[in-house]
Each structure stands twice: as structure tokens, then as C-alpha cells.
Request: fold
Amino acid sequence: MTANQDPAKLFADAEARAAAGRAAEAAPLYRQVLVAVPGHLAARRGLARALAALGRDDEARAAEDEAVRLDAANLCTVGRAAMVHGKLDAAMSCFERALALKPDLPDAVWDLAEAWYGKGKTARALEGFRRFLALRPGNAEALHTVAALGGAPPPDRASEAYLSSLFDRYAGDFDRSLIEDLDYRAPELLFEAVSAALPGAAALDVVDLGCGTGLAGVRFRAIALSLVGVDVSSGMLDRARARGIYDALERAELAAFLAARPGLFDLAVAADSFCYIGDLVPVFRAAAGALRPGGILAFTVEWRRGRGWKLTGSGRYAHNPAWLRRAASESGFVELSGREATLRLEYGKPVAGYVSLMRRPSTREG
Reply:
């Protein structure tokens, strides 16, 4: 196909030739459309019909199978958009139609299970995620989610394999989804809290823990002499690097990163990163060592009424503020401020969170 050939015109030409019984001429035109627009479902189906008319049955079946897969994938895309906005019944209808077309399509199996979770049907959700795990044995995301729903013992923290897989997959659409669909507020909430505690602060050495694509970094660059980002997802780090706001970016586990950098930072920021760690004590200890005297650890977590921390069905951990204060105190921190706030939306509903600033006492304070 040359640069001046419009896929829409090519498709119309292919359809006209197919209708006239000239399948041998239509087939290559359909293929040209698919080179330009691989997801063109009607062209894929037209190619299947043309190949069948030419007696090329194996190729025709392959083209039709791909058309069915595309149709099911499109239904999943529509369903996910509905689910983000809390329209779970409409989403489930899409996922069920996709599975009617492709019963073992892993994405549709996962999406339907997630929709069941959104409707509060934990047993049905767990059944779906186990079905996904049967299709994708050893999948880190499925293993973590099954544990989150009570189907296996909960880990103290999300595995690096789980986090890498999850966030590498979402990296390309992460910012748009968080800001436009989920009304994500953690970076803004943290910046407001830090600004209130340190009015007029500037020229701080800042580390952005679990920096993701750099949404928090954009905020904190304004008060940073140096800004370092750390994350376990290569995909997220690539997006953060493209912003051009960090002095350094590293792929590492948070506690290990901090433990290797004693006394380097004035401020450590963790915008929703601690939602993937249950037992935060090792991170608090490492952060206390990495901060200079008087330094601040600013973070958000999902709020929990009950004691301690818990892995929730969402796959994230929720923490009780009293437990956070005790655990941080044991590591040498004093809480400067803490308040409940909505962090974002999930299935169209607010997620309750807690915004905390923990301070490492200065040398004079002992």
C-alpha cells in the first residue's frame, strides 16, 4: 500500500470485488487494509470469506479465528471502560459475550473475575482468578490476587514479580487512567501536607519511593535540589525518565535502596507505594537511616479500621493509623501530621486513605 492509499477506500474496493465474486482480487486488498489497520475487524472477516471462496480453508480458518479474537478483545476493552466508571453490569455483559466467542480468552476470564469482585461476590471472583491461573500457571498477578481473596496465605508484601508485571503492563496508559478515570489525588495530598509542615522549603534532597511515571515527582521537583526516583517497574521508569525531571532513576526494591544510602535525603515521598507492602517496619527502619536528622517521610496508605495491616481483595494492603504510628516510632520517627482523605476512585467509589508525615528527630532532640 502506498502512502496515498486510504485504508477506508481500499476496504470499500475489496468489498466491492468480493461482492462481484472476484475473491482473488479482494483478498490482497483486505490484507493491505490489515497492514495499515491490524485491528480492522471487518477486513479480517472479509479476508476469511475471500480465502474460503478460493478454497484456502486453513488460511480462512486462521483469519476467522483472529477475527473472533479481535471481536472478543474489543468487547473486553469496552467492558473495562464501563467497569472503571462503576457500570459493572454493563461490563460483565461485555466480558460474558467475549467468553461466549473465546471461552479460554485469558483477558476476558480475568476481567469477569475482577467485575465479580467489584460487585462484592468474592467467591465468584476467586473462582475466576483460579480459572485464569489454570490458563496462565505461575502468573504472578494471579497468584497474588488469589491470596488477596483468601485462596492462599497472604504474603507480608507484594512480590517484585507481581509489581513488575502489573505496572509494566499499565505503564503506557497509567497517567491517563489515574488522573482522568480514577481522580487520583495522592501526590497533591502529600505536597499539600509537606508544604504545610515546611513552609517555604526549597533545595531539599528528595527521594520519590515507588515513583511510577513521575506524577509525584512533578509536584516535588519545585522544592528539590536533587530528585531521585526508585521503582521496580522498568516500564514505569521509562515513562518517568521521559519527563526529564529526575536527577537519577533506579530500579530497586525500596527498603534495599534506602538501606544502601545512609543520610542522603531530607525528604522521602511515597505516594501510594506503601499500599503494596503490609509489614512496613523494614521500610521505616531503612527510611530512618536514609534520612538526615530532621528529615521527613511523607506517605499515603489505604485506611483500615481494624488492627495492624491487612491484604485486601483489591490486592493492596490497608493499614491502621495507630499501628503506623507505633511501627514508625520504633524506627525513630515522630508523626508530624496525619489525616484521612480520599486517595482515588475504584469502581466509581472513593478509596479511603491516610496521609502521614513522619519526622526523624534532629540531633539536638535526641
